[in-house]
Design a protein that fits this description.
The protein is mainly alpha-helical and 488 residues long. 54% of the residues lie in helices and 3% in strands. It has three domains: 14-245, no CATH class; 275-450, no CATH class; 458-485. The longest helix is centred in the C-terminal third of the chain and has 27 residues, at 459-485.
């Protein structure tokens, strides 16, 4: 009993629970696909600092650090800033990491932080057409791995020194004394830094991952940065990437408020929107009207709180569901279903090896944080839509997926494995899931799809059906005239 109480006191009194936000992934997850979680080029922070396969790039990192030093203040200023944050830094990593608490840890943070800042400062000169070199692209992927992070407040304080010199050291000391950057009024400086981060990630990762152009991604995210409150600042670079990808309303709200907003934005009012119902099937004539969209009846009510499994794309197609890319999307979860026209609009995603690294690390990260798992929910939605290569090909034909993997089966395998053994609550896509299932269960939608698939699937088939109908009408008309000629 005393041992339990002693252990409990140790845990509750430990400062590690305050800012603990950089996590160690389970070995089983890393072993499943190590190339998605272990850095290939450069280590950032203590997790992979001494791994042998990364040592050859340490020299290049030092060269970047040296270039950064030539831009601004002395090394002593940067070391002093990180020393003031040292205790807080230890709290951001799990205790089982067994960090050596000495000057080598401080220097590692200084070098890694300045290396990242030098990368970001180069992005100031990037244009949306600037080519991405292979090394730069691989580094950008390493910067968003779960275990390859340093706290963002390190970058903020180092950047403050870069901007303000010795005065920045005094400001950073004041921030460290306040124990959180949220207590320090430095909005212009953090906004500048986040803008650099945004340009870097948009240029290196997001234009090759999302089906949006540079300006669309940058401008929509720039507005978020301008209005971001200190208490909602991202914790590190991976968290910043997630910040860009999740819905805008989710940035500065509690999970409950975010869920309410998601339901409101997705659940369009049905007062003036009626769709053909299964009750249309009472007769052959009503069936024809239903097929032509001529009868409108309110669909049966469904409980929007029940999580509905998404049917695969080819299955939904058999119920007249059409797929389109959402050209107005600003986040991965801008998924809309128009039940009047049976159109499911989904943001375009470009699938390649780098896409899997982004999605896997975001999904893994969301298992630890106290927020809704928006990226996991997107991955789950796509996993439901995709069961086979035929589903991938259907989505690809409609611009929802752009694959660079070659074999569509690889895309199916990617999404099918993303949320395996992952726990999360479905909130944002609940209304869309419910509407899709309602639409699928209306029989006349399947009849219409069958009619279009069997008789209007090619121009020649359509011409044949029209010719047959015209022949039938002419024959019927001739019969009427013949009957009337015998009864003057």
């Amino acid at each position: 009993m005393e041992l339990i109480e002693q252990k409990l006191d140790e845990v509750l009194s430990s400062p590690t629970s305050m800012d603990y936000n950089i996590y160690r992934l389970p070995k089983s997850l890393v072993d499943e696909k190590p190339e998605a979680y272990v850095p290939h080029i450069v280590s950032i922070g203590p997790f992979h600092h001494k791994q042998q396969h990364l040592q050859h790039t340490e020299t290049r990192k030092i060269l970047y650090f040296h270039r950064f030093m030539n831009r601004t203040a002395s090394l002593l200023h940067y070391v002093q800033v990180v020393e003031d944050l040292e205790e807080r830094l230890y709290q951001c990593y799990p205790t089982d990491l067994k960090i050596e608490r000495d000057s080598s840890f401080v220097m590692m943070m200084v070098v890694d932080g300045c290396f990242i800042l030098d990368l970001l400062l180069q992005s100031k000169n990037y244009h949306k057409t600037t080519p991405i070199l292979k090394w730069d692209y691989q580094v950008s992927q390493d910067l968003i791995l779960v275990e390859n992070q340093i706290p963002i407040f390190v970058l903020e304080e180092l950047y403050r020194v870069f901007i303000n010199g010795a005065r920045g050291v005094r400001e950073a000391t004041a921030t460290a004394a306040a124990a959180t950057t949220a207590d320090h009024d430095d909005h212009p400086i953090t906004t500048q830094l986040y803008d650099l981060m945004l340009k870097y990630f948009v240029h290196h990762l997001l234009t090759t991952f999302l089906g949006m152009d540079y300006d669309t991604i940058y401008n929509s995210s720039r507005d978020r940065i301008e209005n971001l409150k200190p208490e909602y600042r991202p914790k590190h670079l991976l968290d910043f990437l997630r910040f860009i990808l999740i819905p805008n309303f989710a940035i500065q709200r509690s999970p409950a408020a975010a869920a309410a907003a998601a339901n409101e934005s997705n659940n369009n009012s049905k007062k003036n929107k009626k769709i053909p119902s299964a009750t249309c099937a009472s007769s052959s004539s009503s069936r024809l009207l239903c097929l032509l969209g001529g009868m409108v009846v309110d669909p049966p009510k469904k409980d929007n709180n029940v999580v509905v499994h998404i049917r695969c794309a080819t299955k939904l197609k058999t119920a007249s569901v059409k797929f389109e890319k959402n050209k107005k999307a600003t986040s991965l979860l801008d998924i809309i279903f128009d039940e009047n026209n049976g159109v499911l609009k989904i943001p375009t995603t470009k699938i390649h090896e780098g896409s899997e690294i982004i999605l896997r690390n975001l999904v893994a990260y969301e298992q630890y944080i106290d927020d809704y798992s928006y990226i996991s929910e997107y991955a789950s939605f796509m996993n439901g839509l995709i069961d086979s290569r035929e589903d991938v090909e259907l989505l690809q034909d409609n611009g929802v997926i752009v694959t660079m993997l070659g074999d569509p089966s690889e895309v199916a395998q990617l999404f099918n494995n993303l949320v395996k053994d992952v726990m999360f609550h479905v909130h944002y896509t609940l209304p869309v899931r419910g509407k899709l299932e309602e639409y699928y269960n209306i029989r006349c939608h399947k009849w219409r799809a069958s009619l279009m698939g069997n008789y209007f699937n090619t121009p020649w088939a359509s011409i044949s059906v029209v010719a047959a109908i015209m022949l039938l009408v002419l024959t019927f008309t001739q019969t009427i005239y013949t009957i009337l000629s015998y009864h003057p």
